[in-house]
Design brief:
By secondary structure, the protein is of the alpha+beta class. It has one domain: Cyclophilin-like (Cyclophilin, Beta Barrel), CATH 2.40.100. Helices cover 24% and strands 24% of the residues. Strands 3-4-6-5-7-2-1-8 form an eight-stranded antiparallel sheet. Helix 2 packs across helix 3. The chain is globular and about 35 Å long.
């Protein structure tokens, strides 16, 4: 009988461990190795294909913003953004997406530190990370500027720019779905359009 109780206890312990393991976050911030690989790669091309079939192409500047870009690339490769919406649309300001809850309060289960490039500015077409009033609270939510927003410079992590599809960006309505979001290395050599003109 005592053996039976020991076996039951072990089975219950195994069940608790299994549940605890299942509760581990599915997503994790980028490692230093992933950040350095992103810096070395340099640029990435993200393609956001909307539910209507139209696409927004975004170039990410991994050399300038290795930590932020590594985070976005990692989530994208994990299919995190597929099926999420643009939950916030403010005319002449931004469209914002990347929240699995669709409320503006959701995220991947972690936050990342604020990274700022002295080169990248919040001009029309800039992609940047959304956050709360506290600086180190970005996770997965991002926004695309639909107009120049210099008041965001230095406070938010601008990490890329729209290569094509600004017409689609301008047409996005609250609740529009990102059907798929994909990413691949990008070898284009064009100048950064949202760079600070005073920095050479």
């Amino acid at each position: 009988m005592r053996t039976f109780y020991w076996l039951m206890a072990l089975l219950l312990l195994g069940a608790v461990v299994a549940v605890a393991a299942g509760d581990k976050p599915k997503y994790a911030p980028p490692t230093r190795a992933e950040m350095e690989a992103t810096r070395k790669e340099g640029r990435y091309l993200v393609t956001i294909t909307m539910q209507n079939g139209k696409a927004i192409e975004v170039v990410l500047e991994g050399t300038e913003m290795p930590y932020t870009v590594a985070n976005f690339v990692k989530l994208t490769k994990a299919k995190y953004y597929d099926g999420l919406t643009f939950h916030r649309v403010v005319e002449h300001f931004v469209i914002q997406g990347g929240d699995p809850e669709g409320t503006g309060l959701g995220g991947p289960g972690y936050t990342i530190n604020l990274e700022i490039s002295p080169l990248l500015r919040h001009k029309k077409g800039t992609i940047s990370m959304a956050r709360t009033d506290a600086p180190d609270t970005a996770g997965s939510q991002f926004f695309i500027c639909t107009d120049d927003t210099p008041n965001l410079d230095g406070g938010y992590a601008a990490f890329g720019w729209v290569k094509s599809g600004m017409d689609e960006v301008a047409a996005v309505k609250k609740g529009d779905v990102m059907k798929t979001v994909t990413v691949a290395p990008y070898k284009g050599k064009e100048p950064i359009p949202n760079a600070d003109e005073n920095i050479k």
